[in-house]
Specification:
Blueprint lengths: L5 H13 L1 E7 L3 H12 L4 E4 L15 E2 L3 H5 L3 H17 L5 E10 L4 H17 L8 E4 H7 L8 E11 L2 H14 L3 E3 L2 E5 L7 E7 L5 E11 L5 H8 L7 E12 L8 E5 L5 E7 L2 E5 L3 E2 L11 H14 L12 E10 L14 E4 L5 E4 L6 H16 L24 H5 L2 H7 L4 H11 L3 H7 L17 H10 L5 H8 L2 H4 L1 H19 L3 H18 L8
Parallel strand pairs: 1-2, 1-10, 2-7, 4-12, 10-18
Antiparallel strand pairs: 3-6, 4-6, 5-6, 8-9, 9-10, 11-14, 11-15, 11-16, 12-13, 13-14, 17-18
Helix pairs in contact: 2-7, 2-10, 15-18, 18-19
Bound molecules: flavin-adenine dinucleotide (FAD).
Flavin-adenine dinucleotide binds next to α2, β8 and β16.
């Protein structure tokens, strides 16, 4: 589904200047994207501006799990358990291409089987509360079955394991799908546009935004503003109420990526870190990632650094859970770090702070949303739009957001990507491609893989950008022409996820990818060099800890 291209961005900048909106959303992460979609589907006039690229904040750096909230049961947050479970089902309905079943395996260690029994009781309670379907209920594995399922599990005091399904997503692409859906419902959406002044409350309020491409300032007229700026929420609140005290407590979480040959996990294995926190090992195609940490963070928000201590914490959990693996820090092939924009709860440790979202309306009528989870973004958006409606004095049409498929979610009647791949029209469209490319297209674009093939142009769209890189010219062009990618980093970090999962490969491919993008975006040699240098610097910074002794 196309129509989300560079010319669309230029048109949208004109529309930002010309129209009067009901709501201007600040921030193009999952929270803002969800609000823009919900508001547009319910009949409001919507604009969304994102200061950098869509999903470039926390929403491309999560653990990428859509989870039913089992973890919240331990903290007694029953409301969150119910909401996460319901939203997990809604997401599966509207985005079957972004909710691959991830089989979780929780090994249980101890002197007796009491721990296993306690977990069974907890899971049975969770499944009742969450209304889990019979096919998705947990199963208990004895020690022998647990080892057959995960042969590299440490054996000492292993009692058995619990297996249950969750979903794995692609966070940045889920944001993109949600924004495309908002765009199709009429929202005016633009990346690289920063809110710099909020202006006085009025009817309408005049908000100044800066186009980061041209440097131009655009006054935007809007009846309300929604602050969905994630870790930057306090900065945007200060534009509205300069004297307000900070409300956010930022915590950092990192992930490290290995080849499956170094960490041959078959499930998402739930490990216990040295402080008792759950830490995940998540297989994703030919890679496995491990995360995450949860530590207080103060510092620059754009690229939080990964330290040797962060990595040592994950390594320690790996060493205690597995034996015979070669996943040492010098064999890592990718990594990322993100910030949780949590709402302050004085006196609590990072991992104890609630993941609940909080909505506040300021004296000037700005609606701020902080906290929350990727999993529950649609429901959070419903709540925000309910808070906005009385401020604009508009009746809303009924919500379709839990029913209407996201772009890429129309699998032509198939219920998952595996059966979609076997449909005759899909085999006919993708049949000429290599099996590797066809599989990657389906995993990346879902039902829109057909659109990628139909719009592929150029002399040899399906040859790899360089011999060693599993990425084709057609995918790079699609990112620019149909997904509003404006920089090399946009293409390699978020449209494709190459630089997070295979950083060295992405670094090697950067000059060739930049040359392809240059043709579409009219970059000269100087701009190409700048883009490659900027991308390389980010890759180096993300893996700088590999050279340190842990
Ligand atoms: C390590 C980690 C693991 C996680 N794992 C999971 C998980 O597995 N499952 C799950 O459900 N949740 C998970 N989460 C939580 C989830 O990722 C976050 O709740 C969610 O991504 C927050 O999205 P957001 O849109 O609020 O913030 P962001 O994604 O950061 O978006 C905010 C955006 O606002 C923009 N912005 C800021 N200032 C301005 C301005 N002045 N003008 C315009 N734009 C502006 C920023 O550039 C940014 O892109 C995890 C979080 C972390 C950190």
């Amino acid at each position: 589904m196309s129509g989300f291209d560079p010319t669309c961005r230029v048109r949208n900048l004109d529309r930002l200047a010309d129209e009067i909106f009901d709501v201007l959303v600040v921030g193009g992460g999952i929270t803002g994207a969800g609000v823009a979609r919900e508001a547009a589907l319910r009949g409001l006039g919507v604009a969304l501006v994102e200061a950098r690229d869509f999903a470039s904040g926390t929403s491309s750096r999560s653990s990428k799990l859509i989870h039913g909230g089992l973890r919240y049961l331990e903290q007694g947050e029953i409301g969150l358990v119910r909401e996460a479970a319901t939203e997990r089902k809604s997401l599966r309905r509207i985005a079957p291409h972004r909710t691959a079943v991830a089989s979780m395996l929780l090994p249980v260690y101890g002197r007796t089987s009491a721990g296993l029994y306690k977990l069974r009781v907890g899971l049975a309670l969770y499944e009742k509360l969450a209304g889990v379907a019979a096919a998705e209920r947990h199963e208990v594995l004895d020690r022998g079955d647990a080892l057959a399922a995960e042969p590299h599990l440490a054996t000492e005091r292993l009692q058995g394991a619990i297996r249950y399904p969750e979903y794995q997503t692609d966070d940045a692409r889920l944001v993109l799908d949600t924004l495309k859906s908002a765009h199709h419902a009429g929202a005016v959406v633009a990346n690289y546009v920063t809110v710099t002044r909020l202006g006085l409350a009025g009817a309408p309020r005049i908000v100044e935004v800066r186009d980061e491409e041209s440097g131009a300032t655009i006054p935007v007229r809007t009846r309300t503003v929604v602050n969905a700026a994630g870790p930057w929420v306090d900065d945007v609140r200060r534009l509205d109420q300069p004297e307000d005290a900070p409300r956010l407590h930022l915590t950092k979480g990192i992930h490290v990526v290995f080849r499956t040959s170094d960490l041959p996990a078959r499930h998402c294995v739930v490990m216990r870190a040295r402080d008792g926190r759950p830490v995940f090992v998540v297989p994703r195609r030919e890679h496995v990632y491990v995360g995450t940490t949860d530590t207080d963070y103060v510092g620059a928000l754009d690229e939080p650094p990964i330290t040797a201590d962060d990595v040592a914490y994950l390594q320690d959990a790996l060493q205690r859970t597995f034996h015979g693996i070669t996943a040492t820090s010098e064999r890592a092939i990718g990594a990322w770090a993100g910030l949780r924009p949590l709402v302050q709860e004085p006196g609590k440790k990072p991992s104890e702070i609630s993941r609940k979202d909080e909505i506040a309306v300021s004296a000037t009528g700005m609606v701020t949303i902080a906290g929350g989870k990727l999993t529950a973004y649609r429901r959070m958006a419903e709540r925000v739009v309910s808070a906005v409606a009385p401020l604009v004095g508009r009746d809303l049409v009924a919500s379709r957001s839990a029913e209407e498929a996201l772009p890429g979610g129309d699998l032509r009647g198939a219920h998952d990507l595996e059966s979609f791949a076997t449909l005759p029209q899909v085999r006919a469209a993708l049949g000429a491609l290599s099996a590797e490319t066809a599989t990657r297209l389906i995993a990346t674009y879902g039902g829109d893989a057909l659109d990628v093939v139909a719009t592929a142009t150029g002399p040899d769209p399906w040859s790899p950008v360089t011999a060693a890189v599993p990425l084709t010219a057609a995918e790079v062009r699609y990112a620019v022409r149909h997904e509003m990618a404006l920089t090399l980093v946009d293409v390699l970090e978020r449209r494709t996820r190459l630089s997070y999962f295979a950083t060295d490969t992405a670094r090697a491919a950067a000059p060739a990818v930049a040359a392809l993008v240059a043709r579409d975006l009219g970059w000269d040699e100087r701009r190409i060099r700048r883009e490659v240098a900027d991308f390389t610097r980010r890759c180096d910074a993300r893996l700088a800890w590999r050279n340190l002794t842990i």
